[in-house]
Amino acid sequence: MTTALGNVGGLLLLPPRHFLFSPRRSLIPKPHLLARRVVIRAATTSSSSPPGTATGDSNPVTQDLTEDAKVSTGIPILACPICYNPLISKNGLGLTLAFQSASNLECHTCNTCKKDYQNNGIYLDLAVASGSKDYAETMPAATELFRSPLVSFLYERGWRQNFVWGGFPGPEREFEMAKGYLKPSTGGTIIDASCGSGLFSRLFAKSGMFSLVTALDFSENMLQQCYNFINQEGVPRENLILVRADISRLPFVSSSVDAVHAGAAIHCWPSPSAGVAEISRVLRPGGVFVATTFILDVLPPVIPILQTVRQYYIRASSNYLFLSEGELEDLCRTCGLVNFSCVRNGPFVMISATKPS
Predict the structure, then answer these.
(1) CB of 251 within 8 A of CB of 106?
(2) Which residue from 130, 162, 259 is spatially nearest to 201, judged by alpha carbons?
(3) Which residues contact 97 (CB under 8 A, 6 or more apart)?
(4) How far is it, in rounded angstroms, from Cα 214 to Cα 198?
(5) Do 264 and 236 meet the contact criterion of CB atoms below 8 Å apart?
(6) pLDDT at residue number 96
(7) Are residues 251 and 80 in contact, defined by beta-carbon separation less than 8 angstroms?
(8) Residues of the chain whose pLDDT is less than 70?
């Protein structure tokens, strides 16, 4: 069955973060039963292990969080990106944006990491290299581009609007489409991965559809822009946190998140497979992954040429080129996700897949 939102043909040269191409099918995501909830409370402690817990793999708290997919507080179980052990708040405050400036996270139930993770009043820095003094890490060109203050400022002031030429129907329409796929996760927790300036993070927070929205990006300046827009628009803060993290090292306990959204981002990841594998790890059984990107199949005669030059383009630009829906489906399948479906509009595609129940 084929569903098209419009008709966009030809090869389009778009900003580096988002690249191109054509039309096909749309499938309706199947509903999934919501997992039972458990109550998690932030611990205030001066020791490395909270009362009633043990260290190592036998930790009953860690086991419970892995087995139970949804948290009644709506807070994703934040984890150390090095060892994936849960993080706790030193002062016991909630992990929402309203309390973020007073929160201080540390890794616990870990005998080797012993690392504290700080925030700057805008976002929690949960990148692996956060807190380093002398070590500085340079990321691929596409990632570094979006860490720049100029591109971060321009993203919602002209850059993103150009995507209409690649078949993107616009943020409001894309949000409504995503909500259809995300219905099984209503009331749960969502990560807006590679959120940029928080365009969809803010829409998710305003909708009241989720108990907690995590706006996650590696770019410090994008998160600054997100924070500014939140203040300007009066976005509710009680169910929203900003987190800086690497998509290939998500700081969440396994099977602790209900949904992950990645808008126009997957082709920008240094390794799409590493990113989707991490998303699969943190999703609860039955959790939903929704993403949008471009597929370069509008002009079938040029596909063999693109297949030949794609590896060189990827090396030079750090952007991935998808040439078929089958590639995206295979990517999700190999990373442990099932029930793949998609909707097309020229180069634009919205995909959805779920973690097996």
Answers:
(1) no
(2) 259
(3) 230, 237, 238, 240, 241, 242
(4) 10
(5) no
(6) 55
(7) yes
(8) 1-76, 89-112
Task: Quote the pLDDT of residue 202.
Answer: 97
Of 257, 252, 253, 260, whose CA–CA distance to 285 is shortest?
A: 257
Q: Which two tokens stand for residue 324?
A: 């078929």
CA distances from 323 to 17, 161, 290, 327 (A): 17, 23, 19, 7
Q: What is the pLDDT of residue 322?
A: 94
* Cβ contacts of 282 within 8 Å, gap of 6 or more: 76, 191, 250, 252, 253, 254, 255, 256, 257, 260
Could you give the angle at the alpha carbon of 139 between the alpha carbons of 213 and 293, nearest 5°?
A: 55
Q: What's the pLDDT score for residue 46?
A: 34
The pLDDT value recorded for residue 338 is 98
**Where do runs of H (alpha helix) occur along 71-133?**
none
DSSP 34-56: PPPEE-------SSSS-TT--SS
* Interatomic CA distance for residues 9 and 20, integer angstroms: 10
Count the neighbouring beta carbons within 10 Å of the beta carbon of residue 240.
25
Nearest C-alpha neighbor of 219 from the set 207, 210, 227, 211? 227
Q: Global pTM?
A: 0.77
Q: Strand 87-89 vs strand 116-117: parallel, antiparallel, or unpaired?
A: unpaired
In 3D space, the residue among 29, 35, 335 whose CA is nearest the CA of residue 182 turns out to be: 29
| Residue given tokens 């139930």 in the structure block | 109
Cα(305)–Cα(319) distance, integer angstroms: 17
Q: Give the strands of the sheet with 116-117, arranged side by side.
A: 87-89, 105-107, 116-117
CB 261 within 8 A of CB 9: no
The predicted pLDDT at position 106 comes to 52
3-state helix, strand, coil in the chain (%, to 5): 35, 20, 45
Q: Which of 177, 173, 178 is nearest to 193 (CA)?
A: 178
Query: Which residues, in sequence order, are CB contacts of 51 under 8 Å at separation 6+?
Result: 45
- In tens, the pLDDT along 1-20 reads 444 444 333 333 333 333 33
